[in-house]
Every structure is written in structure tokens, then in C-alpha cells.
Input
Amino acid sequence: MAKFLCYRKDYLTQKLAFMRIHRQIPTIGTEYTKPKTRALQAIPIYIPTGLKAFQRLKSMACNVTSALLGYKEAQQGNDDAVPGGFSVCIVWDKVPGESLSDEYFWSLDRDARDDIRREFRRVNEFVITLLSVILELTY
Output
């Protein structure tokens, strides 16, 4: 799996999205065997949990998570690591704002940290409610 930060081609300072690529890799020790041998390991369809979550949240019009911008499911070609194996690319929106690292959070004053805590609590309660609805629909 690889994760990339995507920028606009004509405006390189604007971060737009994240892209994650999931590709099946060969079993250890078979990396340099013939493609026909590696093809025997192929799992042609794989749907990452993150993609399932994005799809479900999008279908429920969830507004507290990043938006799923697109995805592509494919199979690897004959010259790839595992011929016939899965290849999934997912692209989602990068929400505006600063990443909330420990260093950044603790550099803020108490009022700002409390505002962040309140917002996390509000969103967490919403997500818990949303998850309970998802579970009811699933079972």
C-alpha cells in the first residue's frame, strides 16, 4: 500500500486530496519467480475496508469526514508483481486546516484546546450515532 498527497497541477501550493493505492504483492520468496507462478497467488478482487467506509459514509451524506472523490478497481497485468492480482486506487478530499499533531495541539492556548475538544466530542457523538444506524442496516 502506498499513500500520496495530491496537488493541483497548475497550483502546486494547494493540497487537494490523498490517494492510496493497494496492490497485491507476491508471497515472500516468490518475488523473482516466473509470472505464471506468481499469477497462481492472485486474488482478483479486494475491497479495502477504508473504501467500504467511504462508500457507506458517502451514501449516508456524512458531512464530518473527507469526501470520497473516486476510486478504481483493476487487476494487475501480465508484467506486474502478481499477474491477475488486485489493484485498487482510492482518492479522497483533503479537508482544510492544520493536521492536529501533538506538537501543534499543545502549542495552542487552553481556550483553543478546549474548543478542539468540544468539536471532537460533537463529531464523535455524531459518528457513534451514524455507526449505530449502519449496524442496524447491516444486521
Summary: The chain has a mean pLDDT of 88.
